[in-house]
Amino acid sequence: xxxxxxxxxxxxxxxxxxxxxxxxxxxxxxxxxxxxxxxxxxxxxxxxxxxxxxxxxxxxxxxxxxxxxxxxxxxxxxxxxxxxxxxxxxxxxxxxxxxxxxxxxxxxxxxxxxxxxxxxxxxxxxxxxxxxxxxxxxxxxxxxxxxxxxxxxxxxxxxxxxxxxxxxxxxxxxxxxxxxxxxxxxxxxxxxxxxxxxxxxxxxxxxxxxxxxxxxxxxxxxxxxxxxxxxxxxxxxxxxxxxxxxxxxxxxxxxxxxxxxxxxxxxxxxxxxxxxxxxxxxxxxxxxxxxxxxxxxxxxxxxxxxxxxxxxxxxxxxxxxxxxxxxxxxxxxxxxxxxxxxxxxxxx
Length: 348
Description:
Elements (H helix, E strand, L loop, with lengths): L1 H19 L7 E3 L2 E23 L7 H5 L9 E26 L9 E3 L5 E4 L14 E2 L12 H5 L3 H24 L9 H23 L1 E13 L5 E10 L3 E3 L7 E9 L8 H6 L4 E15 L4 E19 L10 E4 L6 E5 L1
Antiparallel strand pairs: 1-2, 2-3, 2-7, 4-5, 5-13, 6-7, 8-9, 8-10, 10-11, 11-12, 13-14
């Protein structure tokens, strides 16, 4: 069945090329018409992942004993997780669908809008072509220097256990000082709200820095990657990307990462022309795609993360807008989907 459909498409394309008089493709306005391409539809996935790096504190094993903080990790660790997955379609010029439309004098059809790679977007009107970009990487730095708040007594301690005990006592003293200030129980209270905030912020910074020596800290960063596929036929369990909870994004052949697959199955929602119909069809206007719907599923071993039916230009056929729509006195405007080549809107 696939071979027969391919043959029909080739016959149809060949008859269209002969009518359009296509030579080397140079997109845009030329002396006697407009060169343009119809798109093959691709699926692009933008994925943002977060990396969390945990650094244990120097006094981690004493957190429960002196601060009653339980289950504090004592080993450094790095973990990754996927935060967001944005799946969308895009168009690439189909090398079997390049056309030159010959225009009569005073025709309005040369007023065509193309994408940067020559895909037809509109005629006699202008549309905004959406652009996408990956989110910028982010990173945090939560490391504080607890040792700069060591008292002389802590520095004089002769063992790590004793230093931890004294550092914990310093944390409790700081907390008592903050409570006393908030209750107005100190002899020299700050004179105004701004001064009070400065004092409390400084005590908070001291407490947090000393606490890091016990509970450690976590820094996070985000990275984004893009993965694309332009299917020529049905796709079954194609490895779109691999992701590791320890390493993040890895190469598609790196077995350290869990594979995320993509399957694309044409639903054959558009009737294909017979060989006779394909041979008889001639270009007398603007050629556009009639996409066929395909099911798109992205999944791993345990779950499906994306499942949707989407149109694909290369799975369908083509049709033609009659040249009379773009004659001398015509005001017809047309827009097309730059990802699928489908007719979106036509107005007179």
